[in-house]
Amino acid sequence: MKNPKEPAAHSKISNCRHGRGARYRTSDKPGAGARAHRSGHVADKANHGDPASEASAEGLRLNKAIAASGLCARRKADALIFAGRVTVNGSPESNPGRRVLHGDRVAVDGEPLPARQEHIYLLLHKPVGTVCTLSDPQGRPTVMDLLPEKTRGLGLFPVGRLDYFSEGLLLLTNDGELANRLIHPRHHVDKVYEVLVRGEVPERHLEIMRGGMRLSDGTPLLPIAASRVQAQDRRGTLLRLVLRQGVNRQIRRMCDDLGLTILRLTRVAEGGLTLGALKAGEARFLEASEIRSLRKSVGLPEKP
Fold this sequence. Notes:
Blueprint: E1 12-14, E2 23-24, H1 45-48, E3 60-61, H2 62-68, H3 74-82, E4 86-88, E5 91-92, E6 99-100, E7 106-108, E8 111-112, E9 121-126, E10 157-158, E11 167-173, H4 176-183, E12 191-197, H5 203-211, E13 225-230, E14 237-243, H6 250-257, E15 262-270, E16 273-274, E17 283-285, H7 288-297
Parallel strand pairs: 11-15
Antiparallel strand pairs: 1-2, 1-17, 3-6, 4-5, 4-7, 7-8, 9-11, 9-17, 10-11, 12-14, 12-15, 13-14, 15-16
Helix pairs in contact: 2-3
């Protein structure tokens, strides 16, 4: 993906496969404003001017202040607050709607929030055999292991998930407000998958998907766009599925209920972003136009 402040000719990040993580090409380093500095103070509108996430005269909601710092998405911030892990001015706070003012000291697990920093947006081609978490108790490789060392400590986290055996487009950012909206069901951001299944896929199965099926455990699903990209050959049948909701492992559960065996599952597009020619394990900065399009798709204004 590409840093919006940098020339278009140098956008890819090469993946180092010997345990040191991916590395930027010289022209891909994020600007100095992206370096992380730690501070316990909530930023004010006069300093940063972001109309989507800055404090008003009455202050900023606590969960939004945490998300705006880039520490995590707002939903995760709610969980941290409810778990008693957040303090304001040294006192535990359990209300996500608590208003915090410029100068209030907010801390999570005793650590002050990171200062507001330049937002970073990375598009990664997640390979099979990695998990979409910051760390894994089982010691499996995570998508964070694929990122350049220079992005470590900038508060990046994956937006949504692809399971261990799936691959494809994954957005990582430290923009908590955008991430929260992209994963919230009310925004219905399109996610496009190419799914290779064994053998032939009867038309009636595609019609069931298009009509909005109910999973065997009773979970109702919205209708999806389902079509064949390629007819059956020796590898199987390649399907194109467009989803607009975030049910866990939805495609695998749908196919399992319909008796279809998935051979490969790849997310190729999301919210106007496309995987393109990016190879597994590679990442690139989003272009400025892609960031604007993403923000517009979830009702956020353009950044100044």
